[in-house]
Amino acid sequence: MAMVNNKTQCFKCNREKITYPCKGCSKEFCFTDLSEHKQILNEELHHITNGYNEFKQTINERKQNPQNHSLIEQINQWERNSIGKIIQKAQEYREILIKLSETCINDTEMKFNDLSDQIKEIQKENEFNEINLNYLRNELTEITEELNNPLKISIKEDSQSFINEISIISSKIMDKHGFLYVSDREKNEVRQWKMGEYNNEGIVVAGGNGRGIKLNQFHCPTFIFVDEDQSVCVSDCNNNRVMKWRKDAKEGIIVAGGNYQGRNLNQLCLPTGIIVDDLGQIYVADSGNHRVMRWCEGKKEGEIIVGGNDEGNRSNQLNLPYGLSFDDEGNLYVADERNHRIQKFEIIL
């Protein structure tokens, strides 16, 4: 009677042996190679753990020393450059004022000397009356005022600053035409840039009308998404809404939220990351509600796609979701900020 052959080929040594499956990689290994495979996995886990520990150490260091942020040095350099310009301009204006003052004093001194000669002449001849005295008195008063308050010298402040202003930039994205879009939460605007165009200053394509709740305003714009038609979707964080500005539009339209801060399906709470799929559906990281919402343009309500089960670290929970991204297969990736992880979700359209 023939023995049953229960041997299969080992993935590692390619020999026919009794093998054991690895559920992670779905490969078959003989006993010896399975042990080595587990050892490799343990080493990889150890490497990942070290990476997590190093990251935790970095976070703690940055929390303890926020002044060490790389952008702080840029601000410090801007401060030094600005102070240098102020000192230089102030010195230039001092020198100009000194020269003007010297000229003014010389002119006044000449008038004084002439007046002094007239007084000496009157005293010498001893011939004067009230008219002469009033004349001398008025002349002395006039040259005194001219010396103390020169009418030809004044200070005028220009409304346009010679110091380059800086702002805090929260998000930027580039479209297929090579245009760079930057959201500026300090100026409450989104600018479009292209190298060598717009005098390297960019043009405002959304907002730029101060902070507010009107359709042509933002209150802390953060993330941006630009579609094929160069329409710009912006998460208007502190207004708890997502705005869409079509190309060359003077104001935007609300495509998500905009019904005050809240947890209802028609509300958002501090939205951040946004992305639009091929069907035009808008996905919003509803950070304050620890969920990801999907909105169809024109609809009054959105639907919860991920999370919405209170904040937490379980697989069906989020804790301050921030950034969103799709891969080529349509899977959604969520940067789960306070859980220090990125979660992948298969989305049902």
Automatic annotation (TrEMBL):
CDD domains: NHL. InterPro entries: 6-blade_b-propeller_TolB-like, NHL_repeat. GO terms for cellular component: extracellular region. Residues 105-139 form a coiled coil. The keyword rRNA-binding does not apply. It comes from the Eukaryota. It holds the Pfam family NHL. PROSITE patterns: NHL. The keyword Signal applies. SUPFAM superfamilies: NHL repeat (SSF101898). Keywords: Coiled coil, Glycoprotein, Repeat, Signal. NHL repeats lie at residues 262-292, 317-348. This is NHL repeat containing protein. It comes from Adineta steineri.
